[in-house]
What does this fold into?
Amino acid sequence: MSEKNQQSADLMARQYFLHLGAHRTGSSSFQLCLHENRAALADAGYGVAFPARDGIRAGQLALRLPQPRHGAEAEARMAEAARQHLTQDIAPAPDQKVLLSEENILGSMSHFQQALFYPACAKRLRALRQAMEGPAAAVLLVVRDYGPFFRSCIRKRMEETIVTDFEGAVSSYLAMDRGWLEVLREVRDILEPAKLIVARHEARPKRVDLLRELAPDLAQVALMQPSTSLNISATDRALSALQARYATGEKLSRKAWRATLAEWRDDATPLGLTEFTPRELRAFSMRYERDLSEIAKEPGLTLI
It folds into this structure.
């Protein structure tokens, strides 16, 4: 291809601005920000894509990416299915700019209790890269101190299934095979974004500010901060009630699940269900600070 034709093709290529989550870092609120600002974003030339989850029923993103058990053949099939979904359902225009948000691209939280930190991340990113048919324009990942992060993750898991071995989970968290630094290196090396932004959840960044970091040409666009919070964590009382029902083998409908959360929403009595010791919290924080220090020095990463 001649240089002129290559430049023309580049101008026609879809541009993906990716928010990769992660779990328990405000992803639902970021997606609500996209939803509530979709008219302004459309006027600025952006389409938005996120899953129908956590009360935002307008979402239409439905990516199925490889799990650790999947081999190369399955990975290739999923990449092609994802490519068709992105190019036909999400961004049919060949020169579309897309703000895409999905917390599950890195993988599942379920592997944490096996001391594995997003073990399928690389193959999932490879499939996504093939689906996008090129590098990402920009990527945003929000990271979180490991102690609060793992605690929030296991509490979310307790909302949905029986969890009987918290002590065993803690041992796995402390022995985790890797962390944010290694995941970010995979994101950088596989997706090859022109810009890879890393934000700290503890800094409580506003979602509109993160959006403008991801897509700097939105700096002068009037954007609204989300009007409400989504995916609010269950109280200890609610978790205890859910766990008691799961222990009997009961499978809750979504309606019954929501009703249980609502019943105990205002009772914040601590029951000590998911508490790390001060020593464990220090260990998590020390690892997190070491990772942040390395992330700040890592080529191709922008820690804000």
